[in-house]
Design brief:
This protein has 208 residues and is an alpha+beta fold. The protein contains seven helices and eleven strands.
């Protein structure tokens, strides 16, 4: 069927495969026409959980499966997931600008503190982006224009700095800590698990 991938329309399919760590067997698979894996994590993990007949399941996946919406869905489905968080700050770092990671959030006041020590407050109602509600935090443009960090903070042709906070921000922060503690080891485990049946199949077909 028609598959939309990387901005192109082509005929193809996307195979999802869930493999157990003990026996290296495929416990669930599905052929989809999704152009990427980003919306598949909770659905495939939940299906594998049902096949195995367990209440909770640890699921390892590569970065292509990451999304905040999926993290929330996995938590609701009692899936303990390890999936790398894509670095969205590379472009900002390349331009030698201050990334959003340099802005500190204070929950009790619901404000962000910028590297210059100024407060960014919530503005307007949360807006939906990619299925996730995000609140915009900013400050008056005249204050940003007079800041000594303006050149390092503001993108070109932008009057003031804005930070968007996801409704799943706390969940993402918790996931980031989990990945920092055991993510590298888990990703090695993932590669040795889910790729194992493919190696076996190739061997059977004489492709070694």
């Amino acid at each position: 069927r028609a598959l939309s991938k990387a901005g192109q329309r082509l005929t193809g399919y996307n195979v999802q495969s869930v493999v157990d760590d003990t026996h290296k067997l495929i416990v669930h698979h599905e052929v989809t026409n999704a152009g990427n894996d980003q919306g598949q994590l909770a659905e495939q993990g939940g299906a594998a959980k049902a096949v195995l007949g367990v209440d909770t399941l640890t699921v390892l996946a590569d970065a292509g499966y990451y999304s905040e919406e999926q993290l929330a869905a996995c938590e609701k489905a009692k899936l303990n997931v390890y999936v790398p968080i894509p670095d969205k700050h590379k472009a900002v770092a390349h331009e030698q600008r201050l990334s959003g990671e340099r802005f500190h959030y204070i929950p009790s006041a619901d404000v962000y503190v910028c590297p210059g020590g100024q407060l960014l407050r919530p503005q307007g109602k949360p807006i939906a982006k990619q299925g996730v509600l995000r609140t915009r935090y900013t400050r008056p443009a005249r204050q940003c224009q007079g800041c000594v960090l303006k050149a390092a903070c503001l993108p070109k042709k932008t009057a003031r700095r804005q930070i968007y906070r996801s409704e799943h921000a706390e969940l993402v922060a918790s996931h980031r800590r989990r990945m920092a503690d055991a993510g590298r080891e888990r990703m090695r485990q993932r590669a040795a698990t889910v790729e194992h049946p493919f190696g076996t199949l190739k061997r059977w077909f004489g492709w070694d």
